[in-house]
Amino acid sequence: MTFKPHQDPTHLYFITATVLGWKQLFIRPAYAQIVLDSLDWHRKHGRWALYAYVLMPNHLHAIIKPLGDQSISSVLQSFGSFTAHAILARLRDDARHDLLAFFAQRHDRDASKKHQIWQPIQAKNVYSVTFLREKLEYTHNNPVAKQWRLAEERADYAYSSACFYDRGLAPIVEVDDIREWC
């Protein structure tokens, strides 16, 4: 059963989107760019405020707040659907039959779909400043965790908003400043 967060228009949400089977799809820049572009599109088109993110080789963490009349479910469905279709199109264009077969043959995929890229996207209500700070640190520390070691310093990892918070530099995808919530 998929966890359904309580919809509260005043809440921030910590989201986790994981590639089916933990396949390290985002080590390829072209596939990573699809996710980054979608994060940016949703922000620029007023679907959500994006406060923090990290795109890892096989998953994404972000802290967002749906805007206007958007629900957390609708923005995650939009993000997941768009990125999945774009990634599958790119896999076809790149003749990546091995990956297309992988995403078609997974036993944990949704049987109603021919291919599936994402496991069900998880969203957790950010219910306190303590939880917000914990998830912000967790998000930004992911690339330097001992199981990953993708950068010496977390602000050096390109697919993250850590450089904004740690060094005041613009990340690849612009973010809204979360410090107003802390």
Q: What order do the helices and strands follow?
A: EHEEHHEHH
* Helix content bin: 25-40%
Identify the CATH architecture.
2-Layer Sandwich
Put simply, the count of helices is 5
Task: Please tell me about this protein's structure.
With 182 residues, this protein is α+β, with helices and mostly antiparallel strands. It has one domain (12-180): Alpha-Beta Plaits. It is 36% helix and 15% strand. The chain contains five helices and four strands; from the N terminus they run βαββααβαα. The protein has helices at 29-44, 72-93, 97-105, 129-141, 162-167, and strands at 12-18, 48-55, 59-66, 122-126. It has a four-stranded antiparallel β-sheet with strand order 2-3-1-4, with helices on both faces. It is globular and about 45 Å long. The relative contact order is 0.21. Residues 1-6 have low confidence and may be disordered.
What is the element layout, followed by pairings?
Layout: E1 12-18, H1 29-44, E2 48-55, E3 59-66, H2 72-93, H3 97-105, E4 122-126, H4 129-141, H5 162-167
Antiparallel strand pairs: 1-3, 1-4, 2-3
Helix pairs in contact: 1-2
In a few lines, what is going on in this structure?
The chain has 182 residues and is an alpha+beta fold. The protein has a single domain (12-180), classed as Alpha-Beta Plaits (2-Layer Sandwich), CATH 3.30.70.1290.
